[in-house]
Amino acid sequence: MQIIKTRVNYRSARILLRELIITDFKLRYQGSVLGYAWSVLKPLFMFLILYLVFAVVLKVGDGVTNYPIYLLLGIMLWGFFAEMTQQGITSIVMRGDLIQKIRIPSWLIIVSASVGALINLALNFVVLLVFAFVYGMDFHFSAFFLPLFMVEIYLFALGVTLLLSALFVKYRDISYVWDLILQAGFYATPILYPVSLVTDSFLQKILLLNPMAQSIQGARNVLVTTDSITIGEVFGSRFAVLVPVFIVMLTLIIGFLYFRKEAKNFAENL
């Protein structure tokens, strides 16, 4: 039987995006006893284990102001990046039946997966704020700059997802390779340890050219403690931040162009 594709207009696309977001979020925890609570419990369990190992046993956080919040924020932001990319990479293939039946803008599927990760991040931030108040952390006016770093992480994750999701349609090994890269990236990024532990200034510069390292350090600096070393301090210039921002925009452009090029063949390759 021949499948007749129907074109989706703007209003239909908006409705479809909303339904995709709702469906994705419901299916993710379907059949789970704790349900949506896992979106908060998972990073908290990870935080507890890593805090006991690196702060209590190895004393890595000694000398870092508000280290528990410092650590939790880093884990949350990296977790958001990892979740958004991991969910997004397979989303086109997982929604293959929809793409083959409806002439839908494929990017809607990527955006719907990203919104699910954003919802989890928002829930985690509520927990972070509760921890911060209980811990007695002081908030400053600089905290209003936090959304800038959130946008940077989102755009970087979006660019990576667009690129890898299009590649995944042809090469299913991409998801396994990306899982390995995420594991290595977690320890290569200063999430568990302060940048000050890296004594070589050249290595500090290389480390903070990574958009994730730069944005996490910046977020910590404006929200948790000014002890968090930023890329501007390492390079001695506030304009150094433009380098990781350029990397983010380049990744987004490359991801978008490659995704758009491959999107017209998704239905045939799925």
Could you name the key traits of this structure?
single chain, 270 residues, mainly alpha, two-stranded parallel sheet, 13 helices, 71% helix, disordered N terminus
What is shown here, in short?
It is built from 13 helices and two strands, in the order βαααααβαααααααα.
How do the helices and strands line up, and which of them pair or pack?
Elements: E1 6-7, H1 10-28, H2 38-57, H3 67-89, H4 91-94, H5 96-101, E2 102-103, H6 107-135, H7 146-170, H8 174-188, H9 201-208, H10 211-223, H11 231-235, H12 242-263, H13 266-269
Parallel strand pairs: 1-2
What does this 3D model show about the protein?
- The protein is mainly α.
- It has one domain (7-269).
- The protein is built from 13 helices and two strands.
- It has helices at 10-28, 38-57, 67-89, 91-94, 96-101, 107-135, 146-170, 174-188, 201-208, 211-223, 231-235, 242-263, 266-269, and strands at 6-7, 102-103.
- A two-stranded parallel ribbon has the order 1-2.
- α6 packs antiparallel against α7, α7 (146-170) packs antiparallel against α10 and α7 runs parallel beside α12.
- It is globular and about 60 Å long.
- Residues 1-6 have low confidence and may be disordered.
